[in-house]
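Table S4 entry, Kinetochore protein Spc25.
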Amino acid sequence: MLKYDYGKRIKAMINREIGLEKREVSISKLSHKYHENLTDLEDRFHDQNARYDKIKNKIKEETEKCNEIQKTIDDWKKRISEMQNEAQRCVAEAVHNRQQLIQQLDEIHTLKLATNTYINLNALPERIQGVFVQETEVHRSWHPFCFEPLSHTPEEVRQIIWGNSEKAVAYSEAWERLVFRSVREMLLQSTKGS
């Protein structure tokens, strides 16, 4: 029996060794498969990381572009707002100037009728040109005039336009206030500017 026991033992040992080799082969296959899967996962991880970095950089660039565009839009909105404010101010100033001009022209018209002195407004400011109609009980006399405003004093202007008329002083004060002074100022500013 001993022979069989040794044979059985040897056979059992060989069977165990064969079983161990089979297990070793299956473990080796599993290990190889695991390492292949691990390598594949690492490759996929690196690929995904590279794609993630590309997408992240693209998002960063697009965000910077959006921020620049937003800044440009904000700057344009600010400039548009400033331009609108300036336009409103200019319109208000133009309306105010227009109203002043209309009021001044109304006063000039009233003064023309009251003083019988008619001035060609198109000739202003380079020269003062017009006619003074002096009415007497007998007839009307026309006194035309044309002169450069800067070359004469207010007294000389009064003498040129109204001569020895009785109301020359009152006339000249009103015309000086409404027209002549502003004409002189415009001419002085234009000569200073050039």
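Strands lie at 117-119, 128-135, 140-147.
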